[in-house]
Here is the input.
Amino acid sequence: MNILVTGGAGYIGSHTSKLLKKEGHNPIAFDNLSNGWAEWVKFGPFVFGDIRNEKALFNALSGFEVDAVIHFAAKAYVEESTRLPEEYFDNNVGGTVALLKAMKRAGTKYLVFSSSCATYGNARTPTIREDHPKEPTNPYGLSKWMCEQVISTVAPVAGIHYAALRYFNVIGNDPDGEIYEKHEPETHVLPNLMKAAHEGGVFRLFGTDHPTPDGTAVRDYVYVMDLALAHIRALNVISTRERLISNVGRGLGTSVRELLKTVEEAVGRRVNVQENPVRPGDPPELVADDTHLKTWFRHNFKTVAEVVRDLAEQQKLQPA
Ligand SMILES: NC(=O)c1ccc[n+]([C@@H]2O[C@H](COP(=O)([O-])OP(=O)(O)OC[C@H]3O[C@@H](n4cnc5c(N)ncnc54)[C@H](O)[C@@H]3O)[C@@H](O)[C@H]2O)c1
Here is the structure.
């Protein structure tokens, strides 16, 4: 299939493009490089463009005879969204509306949307099911929930089958080291921990008084290549079903202190930790209920320890 990958120059978009190519598809990256890297678009054609530009999207969809869209492009910094909420609604929601209009006009029938566990807000239950109330605690999560609502309203009218995948926290790199996680600035916990362990710098731990067993935030970490495969399986599912709404998480929580210990063991070095207050909009605990996921995606996920061990091996090959 010809698959338009919006945000294809970003972290998850480039990893998914690599797997799409490996499975015989043609991934076409559509990205404005606001937070992506042109050198990561190496698995198919590149269209430089903004998802708020409906005409540019329509030209890409029709020009490449696109069969399906995987829509990763978004602004995705929780803390930034609390300072610039209008930019998040403009980019994430406005971009999704433009994409749906372009798909309707071009007659593109399949869409997989990157949603997030940030749509749920503070967990009311130990693990979060898809029907958990949507009470986002930050504008980023609200923008993702608004996108889902827009898609669920427009898709049936436009004849689009869609999947909304609510990912939990994504970690890890391409095993071949061709592409890797790189955000500018990097706010994600694991790359920052690995960097501090490798270079001997300070790791800033945000939040030590959360209502969790060790006081640090608990998250459900998913390996990026497992997540990439979930997208390809989701495309198969929506070929015969109008919609699929599902968490993508392992159903297992890891606290920041547990992650820290795993990194120290894998790297064989203590990390210099600086404790900081909780970041605005950061819920204490987000762990998926994976019951629904398992009905359509039976998969042996990589564990956090395995991902960290692989990252430590890759780092050994790089100068500090
Ligand atoms: N990383 C995670 O843990 C995580 C968790 C849940 C959901 N998500 C979602 O997954 C998606 C990908 O996340 P990521 O970590 O790869 O982020 P990323 O920032 O690495 O990638 C996003 C890409 O979208 C592009 N982009 C942003 N706005 C654009 C626009 N207006 N037009 C064209 N391109 C635009 C950026 O340049 C970037 O390449 C996002 O939608 C994010 O909300 C990520």
The mean pLDDT is 96. DSSP finds ten helices and 14 strands in the chain. The CA atoms of residues 81 and 140 lie 5 Å apart.
